[in-house]
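User: Quick sanity check before I run a bigger batch. Here is a single chain. Can you write out its predicted 3D structure?
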Amino acid sequence: MGAGGQPLLDLAAYVADLAVTFPEAGSHDTPWAIIGDLDRILRARLARIGAGYEVQGEIAIHHTAVVEPHAVLKPPCIVGPGCLVAAQAYLRGGVLLGEGAVVGPSVEVKTSLLLEDARIAHLSFVGDSILGSGVNIEAGAMIANHRNERADKAIHVRIAGARHPTGVEKFGALVGDRSRIGANAVLAPGTILAPDSIVPRLALVDQDA
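Assistant: Done. Predicted structure follows.
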């Protein structure tokens, strides 16, 4: 929370459809709190999953989604309507794919939410993150989720120019709706991108450098 008990950021200003796609997130006011509780929330959602899903254990795949051969989905995982999970993709640690989301070949997604029509091209990694609607990530991009280079692993974010602790050691990014991440770009842990952001190819975004 920010000063006066106000939320640090307005999640709806970054990812407008979050409350529709993932209403369970409403009990949390930061993206890292949502990610930290994602495993539990997904398991609760699976227990009441609606019609149209094929459920095997704690993995639910909508009948209109396509999961190509040799993709690996680990529970809990929900693949929504019209999604594509391409060959050799690896989803683990609690993943929700909103309607029309695409995970390309040999992409790893760990503990993340992809909202409607979010797309990740081949050979990319997205860890502990929330991707807004219409986000497009080109090939080979990385959203890092851990401060491997620091003795102090605690992740901080910058909001309105001020540095804030998250209280966690695993958090990747909040990527606002319709943002574009170029090929081989790297988003350091704790990245907060406004809607319609553009990250050039080969760029490094480290807001807490």
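The chain is about 10% helix and 30% strand.

User: Great, the batch can go ahead then.
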